Amino acid sequence: MLTTMKKINLVILIHLSLFLTLSCGSKKKVDVIVESGNYIELGDPSTFLDAWSKENEVVIHELNEPDNLHPCNGTSQVRSEMFLYLHGSLLRTDLRTGSVQPGICKSMPQISESQLDLIFDLREDIKWDDNTLISPDDVIFTIKAAKNPGTNNAAFKPYFDLVEKAERVPNSATKVLIRMKKVYVQNVALWADYPIIQKSFYDPKNVLDQFSFEQFNDTNFHADQFKDLNEWSTNFNSPPYGFDSKLISGLGPYRLKEWQQGQLLILEKKENHWTDKSTVYAEKAYPKKLIFKVNKDAVSTQLSFLKQEFDASTSLSSRGLIEMKSDSMFNQNYHGRFVDVYGYTFIALNTKPALSNNALALSEVEVRKALASLTPVQPMIDVVCKGVNKAVVGPVAKMKSSYNSDLPLILLDVKKANEILDAAKWNERDQDGVRMKMLDGKKVRLELELTFLSTTPEWREMALMIEASMKQAGVKLNLNMTDLQTWLDKGTSHHFDMIMGSWNSSALPEDYAQLWATSSWKENGLNFSGFGNEKTDAIIDSLAVTMDETARLGMEKRIQAAIYNEYPYVFLYGLVRRTAIHKRFSGAELYGERPGVLYNMFQLNSIGVKTSVTP
Amino acid sequence: MKSILIKRFLQTLVSLLLLVLFSFFLSRVLPGDPAKYILTFNNSQVVSSPEGRTKSYERQYRQMGLHLPYFYFSMESRLLPDSFVHLPDNDFKFLLCSLSYYSGNPSLSYSIAKELIAKKKTNDFFLNFQSVGISVAVDDMLANNDASGITKNLLVDLSKLKVDHNNHYWKRWIPSIQWNAKNQFHLWCFGGKSEGSGLVSKGIVQGDFGKSWTRGGDVFEMMKYPFLLTLFLSVFVLVITFPLALLMGGWLTLYQQKWYAKLQKPLLIFTYSIPTFWMGTALLLFFANPRMLDWLPTASPVLETNNGFGSWFFSLCSQCEYLIIPLFALGYSTLIYLSQLVFELLKDELQKPYVMTLRAVGSSERKIIFYYSMKNVLVPLIVSGMSVFPLLLGGSVIIDFLFTMPGMGSLMLQACDQKDFPIISGVLFVSGLVTMLSFALTDLFTYQVNPLIRYSNLKKNG
């Protein structure tokens, strides 16, 4: 489910490093690298240097620690990444293929004809830490805990609002039925990577058994009127369940050993765990410890890598990795790679600009088209991104089957832009050479504001390049650098002319509703630009309930074409993840899908001491 | 002495009150909506249905207590309903405010705004009245009722609204002050149960800073060790720089006529002008770089925070090599400032008659400076030194960021980034409190050691 959230939501890239998916670097080949389809496999180097540590622990660089490790109540991205090692889920996102695969189930769920009932058959080899087998009651409890109005998981509640009920399948010790309230294309994928928790551990007094799904579905149900439930909720919401290693329990091969807040977090491999016998690659757990260390400063991070104090990172700054890749000391010890991910940068244009008087011009599709031709995408990639990123034409990544390859790239063409603007009667110019036109009885200058984030200098560099390019066609651009919160507020309240940023997505099927449905614009959601009409809304609505892949593909291509032709966005370039992995480990794979790397698969290099630690 | 203490205590109390207000309101003026931030930037706002998103937002909003007004009283136009400050939906508030100001009829405006919101007509209406004004927007809606699909009742209400507009428009200028017994400030100061989440806090009066919005943890617990680390670094810097400043200042005074002493001033001013961030980075690149001098570690020590103060302090001391660069980066400017101060004070001191007497009786210049005159510069030096203390606390933000130190600076930066008001308020309050206490202690110290102040006070008291 967590991965689905990533997909549905298109989470904004917050951290400066995430923006710095800009990148570049040398094209030198590393020792053994196999690029197979959606992922890259890093092989063994030819030697194991004396200076390399033989500790079977992976020290991972992180920019942020998780908000908590509570199974229900946290929201941070790092937390959900750590849950891959701490917990098990009904389904999991297969990072190699970008598809949903069975997790703690024997197979994908049986789906009823109505598409509302999902029957999951649990594996019989999966045990909790107290050696008891997982049961349907644990799944039911997990859903109840999440639906309980007293649980502080506002961010997750909308998911569970889609669930009608969960119950045991009669005459089966392993099957659980989950009934959804409505047909929705994500009904199955919702269960990917959402942690299943142990009923006897979190609810030893069976408090939640006293309450039904009907009660939790009832909006008039007041949880605080029930003493037992209130007490259970207060206890369950309390910080120890998110921080105390004794109160964090899951099905995953690792347990929380130590957490020094703001500094490091250590996950330790469990002894004799059920995953030891697993044949699923993602369930393997080779390192004895995964040590996540926080370091936000680029300089000290870089020095730490030179000193081999870190084994891995997926959150380096692009410039940091570029610099490191030019250092022989780094190259001797690390694989440094830029990996394409499912995300892109963009400039949203306010197509319904009544709230922003400057942008009246942007309601004209010709003006938006001209602006797209005036945006120096490739020069920006070459100069700011050092040539690593690739230009994109739409919101869907090229790696996806739903990508519409018929749409050509929009290239920088000042002459064409001038022609378009002339044809749209933006002929008149003021003394500064800025184009003007009469609109609604008022003389409007083609003067726009470009809002962008202050998180990294690269945004500003790009904004300056765009400003210079626009000037050539008589478009005046005023630059407005803002913090993330203001950026979001401006976007959602539609108080902007042009707003530059980036979105992240995932390998799973796109849900276009958040960014492109008119309802998302009306409700101040993430449809910043105001794109959409009844026709596109109908396609988006159909996509949400169409299960047939072929039919979906056609619709997805149509919606991409509609976006392309309306120019609500100027699409810039695809994002890349910046990874560094120490060569003392083999078996590492780099994925386009988040989190990009599975650290549990790292094996001490065979020339080192790998054989002694294989589970 | 007693009267001085009481006076100082009362002054501190007033400052404390102002500090509490300042800490609270400063944290609240950060731009943006924290509930929206948490839902948008953290794996959430997940569903494609706007209803789900709105519900989720409202839950989060209430859970954080943002539906409560900020303070005990709020001043709004008389035309806004009493419940205005409690409304969670900003769009609804905006719409209601516009309609009420337009018509002078708050109750009718409330029902119309509610219906427009329910029918998702809000944005259409906004668009219209932003560009053509509310009067025309209402006319448009009345004229295009078929297209807009609004109910007959709503049309009747809108017509009434138009009539009211001419009669009650002036009322918007009459303010009304509302008393809010339950408000965010009260909850923060005196504790209580948050309506949405059921979180119980005892309030800062009982040392409970509430729960972090993003982590759910106890703010006091979260601040404990970061505060100790920052305090430790700041105090340590002062303890080290004081004797060093005395030595440097004395030495500069002693050799002030020599060429190397004359050269020191521009050199020190140059060093003083180097920003802490730059100095820290330069030190890292020079002393913790395998390509240069790989003498010192790069990042911060890993401090043990789970087993009490003893193990925390032990882990800090046992990894003292990690503190060398941060301490230097934090303290170099203080050292230069204080040594220059000592130099200037000693120069003045050397002009005094007792120095001439000492010279006449054959005391050496070294003895005069380091023994006789140095005593007299101690008091102003300590007073100035204590005023540097708040700067050190502030400087720790940069040091924490640069060296990934788990201090108050890191905590504050993260909290600001995540709009975690309880932590921001807590950090501001504690930093302010420490600063106030340091000033109060300095005053008492000055009173105690400076006979002139003591004497003048005794004289005043008769």
Return the structural class of chain A: alpha+beta
Largest interface: A-B, 82 and 73 residues
Q: What structural class do the secondary elements of chain B suggest?
A: mainly alpha
Query: Percentage of helical residues of chain A?
Result: 25-40%
Oligomer: heterodimer
Cα distance spanning the termini of chain B: 13 Å
Number of strands of chain A: 24
Strand content of chain A: 15-25%
Q: Specify Rg of chain A, calculated over alpha carbons.
A: 26 Å
Distance between the termini of chain A: 28 Å
Return residue spans of chain A where pLDDT drops below 50 for at least 5 consecutive residues: 1-31, 610-615
**Largest β-sheet summary of chain B:** 2 strands, antiparallel
Write the layout of secondary structure elements.
The complex is a heterodimer of chains A (615) and B (462).
Chain A: H1 2-9, H2 16-19, E1 33-36, E2 39-42, E3 57-62, H3 77-86, E4 91-94, E5 99-102, E6 110-111, E7 117-121, H4 136-147, H5 157-160, E8 163-168, E9 175-180, H6 199-202, H7 213-217, H8 227-237, H9 240-243, E10 254-260, E11 264-269, E12 289-294, H10 298-306, E13 312-313, H11 318-325, H12 328-333, E14 334-349, H13 365-374, H14 377-383, H15 414-423, E15 428-429, E16 435-439, E17 442-445, E18 447-453, H16 457-471, E19 476-482, H17 484-493, E20 498-504, H18 513-516, H19 518-522, H20 534-545, H21 549-566, E21 569-582, E22 585-586, E23 589-591, E24 603-604
Parallel strand pairs in A: 3-12, 3-13, 18-19, 18-20
Antiparallel strand pairs in A: 1-2, 2-23, 4-5, 6-7, 7-9, 8-9, 10-11, 11-12, 13-21, 14-20, 14-21, 15-16, 16-17, 22-24
Chain B: H1 2-28, H2 34-41, H3 50-63, E1 73-77, H4 90-103, H5 106-118, H6 122-132, H7 134-143, H8 145-148, H9 152-168, E2 175-179, H10 184-190, E3 192-193, E4 200-201, H11 219-254, H12 259-273, H13 276-287, H14 308-318, H15 324-349, H16 353-360, H17 365-403, H18 408-418, H19 421-449, H20 451-460
Antiparallel strand pairs in B: 1-2, 3-4
Helix pairs in contact in B: 1-19, 2-3, 4-5, 4-9, 5-9, 6-7, 7-9, 11-15, 11-17, 11-18, 11-19, 12-15, 13-15, 13-17, 15-17, 17-18, 17-19, 18-19
